[in-house]
Amino acid sequence: MTAKDSLNKTLADFQAKRAETMAPDKLKINVDQRRLLVETSNRGGFVKAGDAVEPFELNEVGGDRLTGDALLQKGPLVLIFFRFAGCPACNIALPYYNQHLAPQLAKLGATLVGVSPQVPERLAEIKDRHKLDFLIASDKDNALGRRFGILYSFDEPSKQSSIASGSPIGEVTGTGTWELPMPATIVIDETGRVRFADVSPDWLVRTEPGDVIDAVRKLAKRAAA
């Protein structure tokens, strides 16, 4: 995949076009919040390769209960954390992963799950809209995101903007809180250990599919050896 059609190039192009039409005050709030997260996030607390993952549970939007143990019985597990169904950047990233990541992971015997704290009945919207072929699941109360150290809270300008819009983020997600996960991609091997982790405080920067595929291929080679 070339830089021209990479996920992050696609996201950068989207933001550049949106900046031309977005109200200056709202654009500033968006840019300042992302900059603040990049500058102040506790990167030392992020999930990292080598971490052991304790048992966890997610609620799939179709109603199924997904446990970490059951998912790992099928092979390596790839978790893609995203913000919520209406997030513009997520509506670019998830379809991109559906096209450029999900098929390759399936061939490698890995399971891909998109994870958001949004309640299942609202989260289903993004899977239905883009006809995603991989699992989409709700992380109730941000339990797993909190364990992985990848949560952030809206800063005050972002809170006020969200309230002024008439749709505070806690109402949008159904969680009643100001917390969302930073975009993160986590590869877990069949023993329940993290082998790859990439967390982005800036939600307009996401993990490229090739990096995930390389990480899963290394697991396959290790298993074969």
Can you give the helix content as a percent range?
40-55%
Overall CATH class: Alpha Beta
Order of helices and strands: HHEEHEHHEHEHEHHEEEH
Overall average pLDDT: 95
Number of domains: 1
How is the biggest beta sheet arranged? 7 strands, mixed
Tally the helices: what do you get?
10
- Structural class by sheet pairing and helices: alpha+beta
Task: State the strand order across the main sheet.
Answer: 2-1-5-4-3-8-9
Number of strands: 9
Shape from CA axes?
A: globular
Reported by name, the CATH topology is Glutaredoxin
CATH superfamily: Glutaredoxin
**Relative strand content:** 15-25%
CATH architecture: 3-Layer(aba) Sandwich
Unreliable sequence segments: none
Question: How many angstroms does the end-to-end distance come to?
Answer: 28 Å
Radius of gyration: 17 Å
Key descriptive features of the protein:
globular; 10 helices; seven-stranded mixed beta sheet; 225 residues; two-stranded antiparallel sheet; alpha+beta; Glutaredoxin
